[in-house]
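User: Once you have settled down, look closely at the record that follows, taking as long as you need, and be ready to discuss the fold:
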Amino acid sequence: MTTRVAVVGGGLIGLAVAWRCVQRGLDVTVYDAEEDKASTVAAGMLAPASEIQSGEQALQDLLRSGARRWPDFAAELARATGIELGYRDEGTLIVALTDDDLREVRRLCGLYERAGQPVHALTAQQLREREPLLTPRVRGGAYAPQDRQVDPRRVLAALRQAIGDRIVPRKITDLSIVDADVTVVAAGIGTRSLTGLPVRPVKGQTVRLTAPARPIRHVIRGYARSRTVYLVPRHDGELVIGATEEERGVDTSVTAGGVLDLLRPAADLLPEIVEYPVREIRAGLRPGTPDNAPILGALKAGVIVAAGHYRNGVLLTPVTADLVADLVATGVPPEQLKPFAPDREALWT
């Protein structure tokens, strides 16, 4: 008899898990509350070294695995749906405005090197040769050629198309009412109320501008007067600037302070953006955990969790989908999942 799988949550993680389960011949239903999702606010940078902290080796390995899987995942999903995903591979320019900022860039470059990701130091002149619109005041920086980007909104649309009529528009508030052999909880910040696991909302605001035709080619991760900002160009002329990180509970209001914290350093690095029309300003809620790592694995018999991806949900979508679908299909947790189990000590200390 075919295993009946319920996926609670229709964001990138939930839909990708569902898609991989369908490909394994499982009977899948996705319950999607049709609420705002973190992925619709995310910029979609695929940079496995830039968000890591010292001592997070297991997470670093998972991030690298996610990055390695993205090219094939993107190509397969685009073929299956005919939707162009905005997958780009020009790499990231890491840019410093002051000497203090340059020291932070060098620290980040050390993280890239320890993660086995190539990174090349660049002078201010070399940076401006690659991106002439950068301010002449830049001090220096680096180039990370293996960083990538994708448009999460396009990926979400493609996954919804790939899943088709398996999506049920219903909010699940109690797992006991779900009729399935296996339930996968991929409900983002809603995971806590469903499971009791320590997943908290972390607010992030982003600004989207309409730029002239491709004003910059690379993702720019900038350090300007001790503030960090990233600028992500899209093929359609959109420029995404993000993102704040705020412990504000479930508040998703856009604030003047949050916008200033993004636009000030962005304009310091790329002065002409002050002339770009504003397309959108939004805030979303990342699902954070006490140790900044996702929660992946069996919570109890018949219930699997795939949540708490924090700042790395887009990057970890392909590897999470593959590993969780393997667990659903076989009942045996892949080795790579074990450091992220729901009962790990770091979640509860």
Remarks:
- The longest helix spans residues 57-81.
- The mean pLDDT is 95.
- DSSP finds eight helices and 16 strands in the chain.
- The chain has two domains: 4-84+151-198+289-347, 92-146+201-287.
